Amino acid sequence: MDATTVLTEPEWRARQRAHVDRVRRWTQPHRERSLAKEKHPVHDFLFTYYSHRPGRLERWHPGLGVVLAGDASEFLDYRGYHRTDEGVTLDPAACTEPRVRTAEFYLALLTATVSRPPRLNCFGLHEWAMVYRQTPEQVRHFGWPLRLGHNGTDELVESSQVRCGHFDAFRFFTPPARPRNTLQPTRESQVELEQPGCLHGNMDLYKAAYKLEPYVPSELVADCFQLASEIRELDMKASPYDLSALGYEPVRIESPAGRAEYARLQAEFAERSKPLRDRLITCCRDVLRWREAHLPAAP
Questions:
Q1: Which top-level group of life is the source organism from (predicted)?
Q2: Which of 58, 169, 207, 216 has its CA at 20 to 30 Å from residue 125's CA atom?
Q3: Domain encompassing residue 145
Q4: Which helix (H) or strand (E) holds 5?
């Protein structure tokens, strides 16, 4: 895939400013909390669990197929760019084998996920399994009360069928909770098990997007981040924690009505994730075609 769009400096700087302005609604409060040594059990997750730091989220990339005209020398300080006669654009020589493998992995994962129907019967019990049979001091969000208390939390896990197929959630289960899961996901089985109804799988679209930078436009990264931020709120509303002091009324998955509400919202997020997953699949394919087109000719 060759560069086909030339953006004038006013054009790309307008997009750059718009991106920074958009994401600072999330990055700036996180920085302020960090300076004040305060923690937020909902919003900090996207900056602590994921490796993409606030400064990286604010950094704008145009994506494949774009040349930046005018004074775009600042992009030459970023890995992956070079200067051509038309301006600054992505350098095929910088698309190394590890980057190709990243695109190949996410292409396999994302295409496998879209091939399956969403499964909507997990009811967010992964968060409960992460505190199962823990003492108060062991709980991850220590300081926030459990809605049902420790005994009630344990009883709900024991009386429910835990159906988590997402490895990166399952790996945080407490040891006594793991055998209670109907699946035993591993990193190796991730492509086999991923399905579009999983909240954590849909949050991880953000991870796929930033792992594919700078080959995806930063607007797509921000779209995935915004979705992940909203999903995280549902994730914690349905969790065992009482976060009503922060304005999060619980989704009471311990009741039939709460489970129905959770499944409804889960289905809505699955539907909203579809176009983002499709765009990421297209980006993966574009990266692989672009790299193949620029490989040195065989002797």
A1: Bacteria
A2: 207
A3: 5-293
A4: strand 5-7
